[in-house]
Amino acid sequence: MAFYSSGVEYGIHSLTCMIDAKGNKREMSVREIAQLQGVPFDYLAKIFTKLSKAGLVISAEGKGGGFQLARSPELITLLDIAQAIDDKKPIFQCKEIRERFVVFNDSPPKWACAGICGIHSVMKTAQERMEEVLAQYSILDISRSIYVKAPASFAIEIEEWLNNKRQQS
Amino acid sequence: MAFYSSGVEYGIHSLTCMIDAKGNKREMSVREIAQLQGVPFDYLAKIFTKLSKAGLVISAEGKGGGFQLARSPELITLLDIAQAIDDKKPIFQCKEIRERFVVFNDSPPKWACAGICGIHSVMKTAQERMEEVLAQYSILDISRSIYVKAPASFAIEIEEWLNNKRQQS
DNA sequence: GGAAATCTACTCGGATACCGCGTGTCCGAGTTATGGTGG
DNA sequence: CCACCATAACTCGGACACGCGGTATCCGAGTAGATTTCC
Prior knowledge:
The structure is a homodimer of 169-residue chains. Chain A is mainly alpha-helical and 169 residues long. The first copy, chain A, has a domain at 6-88 and 139-168: Arc Repressor Mutant, subunit A, CATH 1.10.10. Chain A contains eight helices and two strands. Chain A has helices spanning 6-16, 30-37, 41-53, 78-86, 110-113, 118-134, 139-147, 152-168; strands at residues 57-60, 66-69. A two-stranded antiparallel sheet of chain A has the order 1-2. The first copy, chain A, is elongated and about 75 Å long. Chains A and B meet through helix 1, helix 2, helix 6, helix 7 and helix 8 of A and helix 1, helix 2, helix 6, helix 7 and helix 8 of B. Chain B binds a DNA duplex (39 and 39 nucleotides) through helix 3.
């Protein structure tokens, strides 16, 4: 299985579409976001409560409520989102096998347990490098990479779709 | 769940203990390796067939057989092992959500599908950085990090344990 | 004494069981704007 | 005109069902060295 869950993917895409073509925030409800992207609503709702607890979005309860980015789009990185949804999980879970050597007879000496396991140490470094990359890109970057490819009509169609939706209720 | 399975951890530790204190290869059977480290034998056996297919170890069938490193210890990296056991899996599995926008009406335009997804692209870069670190360390490095902490008696105890084991049969 | 049969200890590969977790759904509770109703 | 109430549309949180994949175990088949047996 992949390391980052599909919840993370939903989260990133969702926050990305809460920015308009000009890079400004746009308040939206979970239902709007879910329908706009063709993603399960109930599931996305749970994801947004996580994003809210992590302080990435601000919630507005009640009718007409929804979510809004808590910070400027360039200050929300992919790492922020991934950690908010997947709870800072490690790439590698050390089982301290080094302590299990049969020659230790179930009572490993101090030197064997001292410091961090060598393998674990390398894995931690690897994860740090990985997360550095994720921390380097914001949802504004992602948003731009979409709008730079899209025709001008794309942004308009989304705006219209949103307006229609809101007009009906 | 962690990205790299516990099978990877078993694999790395196992290959590491197929090197003696001087950094030389040491032929061992799966049973020896499993018992030495206190790890399930049957499970480890399956892992070694993967390592064998990946060309990291060479198998010798029949009585007295076992496994041996296929290359010099400094040429076997943690990435080699991880990929041999976990089959080059991606950190992130793109679901191509960008094609699902409701304004596309189930027929996404070419520009939306063109090239690699922006998020996916960042994730791939992140994974590359991570794997670079893993490719940077060999099992010889890991082995040394253990022996540098251990007293001289440690290597001797392992040798004696192995000799006892082989004498009995 | 030498050849053949037997035994033992391996590597392989498939089948299977267990179980945790990711994914997704459902529902009830609390909140807030909106619209309608009655004095 | 204004206070009050019902309704609709949200967010929140818990419970739960489902299925997949990681972990682990078991077993049979094939292979090769060691041992014994038998002529």
